[in-house]
Amino acid sequence: MLNILDIQTKLVEAALPSGYERPCGELLAELARPYCDEMWFTPTGSLVCHKKGEGKKLMFAAHMDIIGLIVTNINDKGYISFTNIGGHNPAALIHTTVRFENGIRGVIKLKNQGDWSEKAASAITLPDLYIDIAATSREEAESMVKVGDLAMFDSKPALVGDDCLMGPYCDDLCSCIVLLMAMEQLGETTSDLYFVFTVQEEVGLKGAITSTACIEPHFGIAIDVCPTGDDPSAGMDIPVAVGKGPTVKIKDMSVICSPKMVTFMQVTAEENGIPYQNEIILGGGTDTAGIMHTGKGAQAGCMSIPCRNIHSPCELVSIRDMENGAKLIAACAMATL
Ligand SMILES: [Zn+2]
Fold first, then answer.
1. In b/e form, how buried is each residue of 27-58, taking b as 16+ CB within 10 angstroms?
2. Is 201 marked active-site?
3. Residues with Cβ within 5 Å of ion ligand 1?
4. Rounded to the nearest whole angstrom, what is the distance from the C-alpha of residue 230 to the centroid of ligand 1?
5. CB atoms within 10 A of CB 223
6. Where are the alpha helices (DSSP H) in the chain?
7. How far is the CA of 111 from the centre of ligand 1 (A)?
8. Chain mean position to CA 170
9. Out of 38, 118, 139, 201, which one is annotated catalytic?
10. C-alpha span between 267 and 245 (Å, rounded)
11. pLDDT tens, position by position, 215-236
12. Residue 222 and residue 196: Cα distance in Å, rounded?
């Protein structure tokens, strides 16, 4: 049985923003090797784990890229300008601690903070922010960090409450773990199965699109996190809650899931006694759209792990939801489509 906190901690240490996924891919390849017949990296770096079957091709996809920051300039006083890789809320980044790939640490700050007191948080943009690494000159800063270096949230996964995992990059490393746990549970299957850890989801579903072109699946299921409507910060009028089971997605802003796949996933959950929630989210998208709309197209669905505080250093998911998600993915993999 895989230890979720242990693997999430290792994945968070290995993961880098979109475009730089290889170290995370190598770690996932090591973890997935016992459960598949063959594996390879696509030309753009997605990891494909193949378990051979005689039936139709069924592809599962969880993205292994994370959101991050990249250094654009270092000024005379040693302060660091940056831009984003993937979606960030600039105002929410203020006083967030970050770590660079080489271990250097810093904190994100707002320029001329006093001037902002009367203005809306929504007016704050990335150029209003900088990273302070405690350098006092350009030379000192450049001895630690250079243009093009990547920065990630500097927080660690931890167990909270009686059932939750909190920390950075549950989106979508927790779904990568769900895929691994599902692969671990597989028995006899008829479908020809492809478990794909995709690249560059956060910048436009690119790994799902290119992997789908390589595999040409008949059916696909993406696994990602989804927002919830269960706490005062949610701002989304939906019934999805942490701890009530993985979701079967019906629609998001990028896709209307194939009705056949929605029904297949719901029926499979019910037949196996797995709790699930129906999901319609009012923003955001997933690899589902990439699978459905590439080449000739495929029938595609999505299972989500409900997640609070998405794209923050303290995303929060339920471990039970992850375990039930793994059961549902394994059951779908073993069912006949
Ligand atoms: Zn995601």
1. bbbebbeebbeebebbebbbbbbbbebeeebb
2. yes
3. 171-172, 224
4. 19
5. 29
6. 4-14, 22-32, 138-142, 170-185, 206-215, 259-271, 287-292, 319-334
7. 30
8. 6
9. 201
10. 15
11. 999 999 999 999 999 998 877 8
12. 9
For ligand 1, the distance from its centroid to the CA atom of residue 129, given in whole angstroms, is 25
Find the 298 Cα to ligand 1 centroid distance in Å. 20
Residues, the chain: 337
The CA distance from 178 to 306, in Å, is: 13
Query: What is the CA(119)–ligand 1 centre distance, in A?
Result: 31
pLDDT tens digits along 306-322: 999 999 999 999 999 99
Ligand 1 centroid to residue 200 C-alpha, Å: 10
Averaged pLDDT score across all residues of the chain: 96
Beta strands 47-51; 192-198: pairing state? antiparallel
What is the reported pLDDT for 283?
Answer: 85
Q: If we measure between CA atoms, which residue out of 167, 153, 191, 192 comes closest to residue 68?
A: 153
CB atoms within 10 A of CB 91: 16
* Sequence-ordered strand ranges (E) for 16-111: 38-41, 47-51, 57-63, 68-74, 80-85, 97-100, 105-110
**Closest Cα to residue 327, out of 308, 299, 305?**
305
What does the alpha-carbon distance between residue 202 and residue 285 come to, in Å, rounded to a whole number?
9
Residue indicated by tokens 């006093």 = 114
Tell me, in angstroms, the distance from the centre of ligand 1 to residue 112's CA: 33
